[in-house]
Design a protein that fits this description.
The protein has about 400 residues and is of the alpha/beta class. Helices cover about 30% and strands about 20% of the residues.
């Protein structure tokens, strides 16, 4: 319903919006504060002191989100209405020309022991060069009645796309989401004959894949998750009248950006090159999504100091963003990844909105404790898009 309303109210203007997204931003106090509170971030603190802060729930209170639905919520799409499997986002992220009816899944190269138990779900985060080589080996696999496409993503991640008649994305993940367990046997999640057939195809593929990879320790297995078939979404151009661009280094986030109609720019591999890209293309677009990945990666590794370092590294670049004079800067994460948990969590995510139209609140710094005092309060993440549009003068009045 909110997208229908925003489609009616949004209007094209010259104002510009920047979403600066620290993946997995939210943390937990380790006794000295969260990573965001320990990091020296004078520039983000200044934006907080001049703007409004609070929290956002990516899905619902208490629900731990995946990156896909959390990002859809960031861009204003209800994540319970628009359910998109991670596989589709991974395939789009690597630029694969996915077609209606294709079924895609995300792959993690992983390590299993002689008993078939998962000992590392990420195979030690193998380098991308190794991932490319292993994907070449998996492309040797052929299955009767279906085409299989294997595309490297980054580090231990890849995408697999199945193409053929009568396929379904209603297949369970094979990733047990923990070590010490065996990979899950793929099965249909409904009694749909297409799903049952697809699950059998996936099982055949996995059997062959394990044979192909058996001598490639630590990446001697694969785990698959986020099965889905492709369906187009209404775009940000159609709904918000925006000309949006994405600046991201990881393929999955490029995929979700493409799904909602963003132009994906060449952002290089570091936060500094991402800000270079922002400056280079500033006059070409009116909405920029700038994604910082390492806050999440370090959180999953339990690396508190790494999270602090990335936050400080990006904070030092923030003056370059401010100098561009966007109408609205929105800083948040797609979800929380506290380093003590080494995983995504259900905790709401800190949010900062900086705009000439923002009401100042008591918060003087950007951190979880300060956000508890913020004027934004605690809102569903899907409302951040309408708030950004409003703070940029891009929404007409509703009603007489």
């Amino acid at each position: 319903m909110i997208l229908d309303l925003l489609k009616r109210l949004s209007e094209k203007t010259d104002s510009k919006i920047v979403f600066l997204i620290f993946d997995g931003l939210g943390g937990l106090d380790t006794g000295k504060g969260t990573a965001l509170e320990v990091a020296k971030t004078p520039n983000l603190d200044r934006l907080a002191a001049e703007g409004t802060v609070g929290f956002a729930d990516p899905i619902l209170p208490g629900i731990t989100p995946g990156s896909g639905p959390a990002h859809l919520a960031l861009f204003g799409y209800n994540p319970l209405q628009y359910e998109i499997g991670r596989g589709i986002l991974s395939a789009l992220g690597v630029g694969f020309e996915i077609k209606a009816g294709d079924v895609a899944a995300r792959v993690n190269f992983a390590t299993i022991d002689k008993n078939g138990l998962v000992t590392d779900r990420r195979a030690g985060r193998i380098p991308t060069e190794t991932c490319v080589r292993l994907c070449d080996k998996l492309r040797q696999i052929s299955l009767e009645g279906v085409e299989v496409f294997v595309q490297p993503e980054k580090e231990h991640r890849a995408a697999v796309v199945f193409r053929g008649q009568g396929l379904s994305g209603q297949v369970c993940d094979t990733d047990p989401q923990r070590t010490g367990a065996k990979p899950i046997v793929p099965r249909a999640t409904t009694d749909n004959p297409a799903a049952i057939r697809t699950a059998k195809i996936v099982e055949q593929f996995l059997h062959r894949a394990f044979e192909v990879l058996k001598d490639d320790h630590p990446a001697n297995a694969i785990l698959m998750r986020g099965f889905d078939s492709f369906e187009a979404l209404p775009t940000m151009q159609e709904i918000y009248k925006l000309n949006p661009a994405a600046i991201a280094t990881y393929p999955m986030y490029k995929g979700v950006a493409r799904l909602v109609g963003m132009t994906v720019l060449d952002a290089g591999e570091t936060p500094e090159t991402e800000f270079d890209c922002l400056e280079k293309h500033w006059n070409e677009y009116d909405f920029f999504y700038v994604h910082i990945k390492k806050t999440d990666s370090y959180g999953e590794d339990g690396n508190f100091e790494g999270r602090v370092h990335v936050l400080e590294e990006v904070d030092a670049l923030v003056p370059r963003l401010v100098a561009l004079k966007p109408s609205t800067i929105l800083v948040t994460g797609d979800h929380s990844t506290p380093s003590p948990m080494k995983a995504h969590s259900f905790h709401p995510v800190p949010v900062l909105i900086h705009s000439p139209l923002a009401r100042r609140d008591p918060a003087k710094v950007f951190g979880e404790t300060a956000c508890m005092t913020g004027g934004l309060g605690r809102v569903p993440m899907e409302y951040l898009m309408s708030l950004a549009l409003a703070h940029s003068g891009k929404l007409q009045k509703y009603g007489a």
